[in-house]
Amino acid sequence: MSRRRTEKRRNIPADPLYKSIIVELFVRQIMRKGKKTLAYSIIYKSMFKIREITKEEPLIIIEQAILNVKPLLETRARRSRGSVKQIPIEVKPERGILLAIRWIKIAAQKNKGKPMFIALANELINASNNTGNAVRKKDETHKMAEANKTFIKRKY
Fold it and tell me: Where is the Small ribosomal subunit protein uS7 domain (predicted)?
């Protein structure tokens, strides 16, 4: 066990255009090989596309999508008596947001044949309407946790 102090989390600066931390988290998740400007252009184009399709503010759509995809429970693998069991645990709010962003990005990437900004815009709109692959992933995670709830260790 380390004797050092635990490192404090750094504050994430908001993105320059929308002044939103969630948009910055999306940019960091989409960024590959340090190309942040490309990630910004993908996000901003998809937000423009969201505004074009829904005639609503894209930040509201993104926040609604994250709320719909954010998991409350997840399972962690624990080894017990020679077998590996999936133990459900509660997800902290920050981790829930990051998981939601990651699942939305992965669902958009699986939509081949379209540019990333269009696929991301479509996935965000679907997630805000409680449909799409990212919401399906959340439902699968919750079903897995529900199926294994007998392994929860209760603290008395």
Answer: 3-149
List the structure tokens of 105: 């990005």
Q: How many domains does the chain have?
A: 1
Q: What is the pTM of this model?
A: 0.89
Token readout for 45 is: 């184009």
Rg of the chain (C-alpha set): 18
- Which of 22, 144, 25 is closest to 86 using CA atoms? 144
Q: Specify which residues 86 forms β-bridges with.
A: 77
45-67 pLDDT, tens digit per residue, is 999 999 999 999 999 999 999 99
Would residue 82 count as lying in a domain? no
- In Å, how far are 46, 48, 49, 57, 142 from 53, measured between CA atoms? 10, 9, 6, 11, 31
Helix (H) or strand (E) holding 86: strand 83-90
Here the tokens at position 102 are 């990651």
Per-residue pLDDT tens digits for 110-125: 988 999 999 999 999 9
Please say whether the beta carbons of 46 and 59 come within 8 A: no
Using DSSP, state whether 148 is helix, strand or coil.
coil
Encoded tokens for 77: 């693998």
